[in-house]
Automatic annotation (TrEMBL):
It catalyses: 2 a quinone + NADPH + H(+) = 2 a 1,4-benzosemiquinone + NADP(+). GO terms for cellular component: cytosol. This is NADPH:quinone reductase. PANTHER family: QUINONE OXIDOREDUCTASE PIG3-RELATED, QUINONE OXIDOREDUCTASE-RELATED. The keyword RNA-binding does not apply. The keyword Glycoprotein does not apply. Keywords: NADP, Oxidoreductase. SUPFAM superfamilies: GroES-like, NAD(P)-binding Rossmann-fold domains. Residues 11-322 form the Enoyl reductase (ER) domain.
Amino acid sequence: MPHAIRFHETGGPDVLRWESVTVPAPGPGELHIRNRAVGLNFIDTYHRSGLYPVPLPSGLGLEGAGEVLAVGPGVTGFVPGDRIAYASGPLGAYAEERLLPAEKAVRLPPAIAFETAAAMMLQGLTAQYLLRRTYRVQPGDAVLIHAAAGGVGLLAGQWAKHLGATVIGTAGSADKAALARAHGYDHVILYREEDFVARVRALTGGAGVAVVYDGVGKDTFMGSLDCLRPLGTMVSYGNASGPVPAIEPLLLSQKGSLFLTRPTLMHYTATRADLLAAAAELFEVVEQGVVRVEVNQTYPLAEAARAHRDLESRRTTGSTVLLP
């Protein structure tokens, strides 16, 4: 019988349980898949902690890669044995086997390994919508990306540099700064040692950046607004340090008629056409070598709690994969 990580109450990593599960035959529009690798993402901790409430008990995880074992009635485009990857709900990627809506799966190119796919789908599709749709980076733009050595940060830095931007990042240590510089960043600010707002202003000759991509949240949000040029775009896409404070809309006017958005991947890939287009663009830059995907940590899936502790204490860099 296959196993999966489940939780029956919200809280810290200790609420995660390794349990036997029954996977029924796939229903209409469903795939029965065997996961070969599962992605670890900060949003998983939001579901586990209750920041993003889900009905309990629940599975966990949005991202994985594996192979199709069986297809349900009405499914077209997939057959048993196909290599697939996915990066959206329903929750349940932390599992050896699971059912998945066929519309959420994409066929994985032969050149991309399961571990690579599990490391890049959610974070890579996030980088794709941030850079190509939420604010479409143009050659010559200066951009600021927080958590430059994180999973999204390393992918987005390479991609933004490829698009012709001057890429500025923040990091918490010299080692993480060096890692970010090796992945496309022109400048990396050690936020524990220097004022990142003043440094961004200095690096841009006082002009500010076109866009801030902020997955950190509470600790960086207000400062990020002060890094923007007039008519700049503030993209708050994560809460690694906690939810951002409430603000009055007038503040955006006072700081330069700024644009503020709080996007999610689920809205940007809500239609099958959008998902396929985003995945195709991601696969293209990875296969061309423009964006290198590096799995810097792996854990047995049964030890997901340990992986969560390391992620939340910022002991990880780049992408982390859980292995069933």
